[in-house]
Every structure is written in structure tokens, then in C-alpha cells.
Write a structure and sequence with these properties.
The protein is about 30% helix and about 35% strand. It is built from two helices and four strands; from the N terminus they run βαββαβ. It has helices at about 15-35, 60-70, and strands at about 5-10, 40-45, 50-55, 80-85. The chain has a four-stranded antiparallel beta sheet, covered by helices on one side. The relative contact order is 0.32.
Length: about 90
């Protein structure tokens, strides 16, 4: 059964969008895609200070082992992390 890592981080609502997008496309997306068992991912921004990333992996073990890579030191302040079973998708 697939599992997802959900990470919520604090981001400044007035931060430079082009810088955020460059960091995502140049670093975070390629790094996530290289993780064992990677299936797909979404990076979301609520526009008021919270970013959420949901990364789906083939197995729970792959998801658990990816948590450290998805929450690196020096990155944005982590508000929460969860590893969840994917029960359905559309």
C-alpha cells in the first residue's frame, strides 16, 4: 500500500515567489524524485504563511525513510510531519 509524507512548513506570505519556485524546481523536486519509492508529489502554498508538501511513496518504509530528506536542517521551520497510508485517490 502506498504511503505519503505530509510536511507543513512556515513560509513568509510576502516571500519572493520566483525564489521559492526556483528552489522547488532546482533542488526540492529533483531531490524528492530521487528518493527510493517516489511516486508523485505536490507542493502547496496557502498564501498566508503555511506551505504543505505531500509526497507519495510505494511503501510505508520508503515514506518513513524519506522524512529526514524532506525536512532538512536549514530549511523552513517545520510545523508538522505525518506519514499516512494512501487510502484512495482520484
Amino acid at each position: 500500500m502506498s504511503h505519503a509524507v505530509m510536511v507543513q512548513v512556515r513560509i513568509a506570505p510576502d516571500s519572493d515567489a520566483s525564489h521559492r519556485h526556483a528552489v522547488l524546481s532546482d533542488a526540492l523536486v529533483p531531490e524528492a524524485k530521487a528518493l527510493p519509492g517516489f511516486v508523485k508529489a505536490l507542493w502547496l502554498n496557502d498564501g498566508v504563511g503555511t506551505g504543505t508538501c505531500v509526497v507519495v511513496f510505494d511503501t510505508e518504509e520508503d515514506a518513513l525513510s524519506a522524512v529526514g530528506a524532506l525536512t532538512p536542517e536549514g530549511g523552513p521551520a517545520v510545523l508538522g510531519v505525518a506519514v499516512c497510508a494512501v487510502e484512495a485517490e482520484a
